[in-house]
Specification:
mainly alpha; 4 helices; about 0% strand
């Protein structure tokens, strides 16, 4: 769930967040905030913009792509066109 869902201002950038969550799950085997067992705790972590932990990986472009997709401020997330131009999606 993208952070902007809580303010009811969703849009295409919310889909970019979702793409970031999918990349995160594919990379690490668990979703962001998996350390919180309770759904309410996860919602609270997202709504308060608790930083997402990104364990180290060898593919820097993948890590950068996930970080860009999972930016809390949707205005700083790439749009779909910019995401297509990211080095990770070019490989």
């Amino acid at each position: 769930m993208a952070p902007e869902v809580f303010s009811h201002h969703t849009g295409f950038k919310s889909d970019i967040w979702s793409a970031g969550v999918i990349l995160y799950e594919m990379t690490y085997g668990t979703p962001p905030y998996s350390i919180f067992p309770d759904r309410d705790q996860k919602v609270a972590a997202i709504s308060t913009m608790t930083p997402i932990h990104f364990p180290a990986i060898h593919d820097y472009s993948l890590l950068d792509c996930m970080r860009q997709c999972l930016r809390f401020d949707c205005h700083h997330r790439p749009n779909a066109y910019r995401l297509q131009l990211h080095p990770y999606t070019q490989t």
